[in-house]
């Protein structure tokens, strides 16, 4: 198992404490794994680690870290759309998928203290799993983060630093602290172990439905869920489980859409933008660090990107709540993005969107 630099190709042992390559490139993770098959799923394990045959080697570290994350239901909303209920998680967010694997790796290699920056959900997940694993944790969040998310981070015993300014500035402050204080950067964007957890989102859908839906909608800020979904789809292709890629639709807030702007203009790197305020705080990322990789895969597989109308978010949240689905604002933006896509391209049967975060987390 090794890291490989996404920029220069340098290899490094995956136990390294270096958050990125000396050249500035981010790490990708390489390890031997079998072709995906449901025959290799551990049906006696009721967490994402039922899929550990396809995960990086973690030894038994995961047993002391898992909180029973995963195995969330797929709920049919109407004839065309299903919801993957990923806020049915220990910390009420899909980020538990990635945090469980990342913190298991930290425990396996003896990490004692970590830092991470987040808009709230990822920080809460890392804080919870570090508490479970006995690892000290410090989380940096931008001002404007839901107070309830901050309360949850602190309840897990982590230090929560609220940083004035944008989400991107918050990340800069955290990375400076990592460099100056020698902390392990348990970041959901930099660290590729996180994506080895988020790919289980699609593993579960395949196991639950017995197939891959024709249309997969995914919100993208930094792209942690998107990159995991692409990993899983590529594994399915390699195993011969699917003949080609489904229609994957990337959704970005119209007020913060660096990938959409680059896609429209044919650029290979995210567009330089000044984010405007948005209710979809979870995807308000002006400088996605893996943006080039996201855009490359969007073009490779002919995926689409759509803007979420800001003025539709609250109405979609109310509509979902009236049907028993109480989600946070960023999650309601997923439904708004799906509706917008249907306006642009027509009826879209056999679609799935993630219910990423629970409603109480953004009541502020």
Automatic annotation (TrEMBL):
It comes from the Bacteria. Residues 65-357 form the Tryptophan synthase beta chain-like PALP domain. Gene3D superfamilies: 3.40.50.1100. Pfam families: PALP. Keywords: Lyase, Pyridoxal phosphate. The keyword Lyase applies. GO terms for molecular function: L-serine ammonia-lyase activity; pyridoxal phosphate binding; threonine deaminase activity. One of its GO terms (biological process) is L-serine catabolic process. Its cofactor is pyridoxal 5'-phosphate. PANTHER family: L-THREONINE DEHYDRATASE CATABOLIC TDCB, THREONINE DEHYDRATASE, MITOCHONDRIAL-RELATED. This is Pyridoxal-phosphate dependent enzyme. It comes from Pyramidobacter porci.
